[in-house]
Design goal:
Shape: globular
Number of strands: 4
Radius of gyration: 19 Å
Distance between the termini: 28 Å
Largest sheet: 2 strands, antiparallel
Strand content: under 5%
Number of helices: 12
Structural class: mainly alpha
Strand order of the largest sheet: 1-2
Helix content: 55-70%
Length: 297
């Protein structure tokens, strides 16, 4: 990697590794330098201008996936749930799904996608008997704001990251993306650290909702996709262990196709960023990731 030049406003990365079905990937160093792409043969290609939207989402979408739920199960969120009369897991289901409003549990299960529907319906019924869904939804989003204030107040490049996230969220098309559309409609905090965390959480729903649509488009049911992608988490998502089965090569090909369609759905939102916005997003998410070191899956 070349010596960083702080006077240049360029997307930050040290290298990009090849990802099957999705091309090369950026890896941020947070130093304000340039984009370097490593292709399959290991050859570096420096990018001194705006990278392609595909290269950008290959980098930032996995980070948003891993960061967007950072506030879900922390003690402060559990305490807020207790104030409402909800245990942590009921607060998760009612809080995350509460943005949908007063709907049936089957609607929430459809929007969540990867959970066993009976589990979602049971938690939803129990929670709505105690707290109105929209109240719980806004309280849960408020927990994201509180987490952001407590964690990211001193994050480098915070204002620029906020602007970049706002640009992506404003450019995203919510049509057909149920949970994202509902989350996007909620009012967000004005202060940067709170808003950044909320936006990362909302944009996590963007790709998640798009992925559910893509899975259906290729003819792959969501349980099969879940078994394929996260076979070790079957019980955690409410599915009986006996439901696990061997995945066929055809199903794996369909899953790869669904990933490509998911990219196509979310890509226009990220394409709204100019080079400075790309740099702010890559740098900012990289700094958040380095600070939290969230688990990946």
């Amino acid at each position: 990697m070349r010596t960083p030049d702080p006077g240049r406003n360029r997307v930050v990365a040290t290298r990009v590794e090849h990802c099957p079905h999705r091309g090369p990937r950026l890896r941020t160093d947070g130093a304000g330098s340039e984009v370097n792409i490593v292709h399959e043969g290991g050859e570096f290609s420096p990018y001194t201008a705006r990278v392609t939207p595909q290269e950008l989402i290959d980098t930032v979408c996995p980070q948003i996936r891993d960061l967007g739920w950072a506030h879900y199960f922390v003690p402060e969120t559990a305490a807020r749930g207790e104030e409402l009369g909800l245990d942590l897991f009921t607060f998760y289901f009612l809080g995350r799904g509460g943005v949908l409003g007063d709907v049936e549990g089957s609607v929430v299960a459809s929007a969540f996608g990867f959970f066993e529907p009976g589990l979602v319906a049971g938690m939803w019924t129990a929670g709505t008997a105690i707290v109105a869904p929209r109240e719980a939804g806004r309280a849960f989003l408020g927990c994201a704001a509180s987490f952001g204030r407590a964690t990211f107040a001193d994050l480098p490049g915070l204002a620029a990251l906020r602007s970049a996230l706002d640009t992506v969220n404003d450019a995203a098309d919510p049509i057909g993306l149920t949970l994202y559309a509902a989350a996007r409609a909620e009012p967000l905090a004005d202060d940067a650290p709170a808003r950044v965390m909320q936006l990362v959480s909302v944009l996590r729903e963007l790709r998640g909702s798009a992925h559910i649509v893509a899975l259906r488009a290729v003819g792959l049911d969501v349980p099969t996709a879940h078994f394929l992608h996260r076979p070790g988490d079957i019980a955690m998502f409410g599915w009986p262990e006996a439901a696990a089965r061997e995945i066929t090569d055809v199903e794996r090909e369909k899953f790869a196709a669904a990933e490509r369609i998911t990219d196509e759905i979310v890509l226009p939102a990220y394409a709204a960023l100019d080079a400075a916005g790309q740099a702010a997003l890559v740098d900012g998410l990289g700094a958040m990731h380095a600070l939290l070191q969230p688990p990946t899956y």
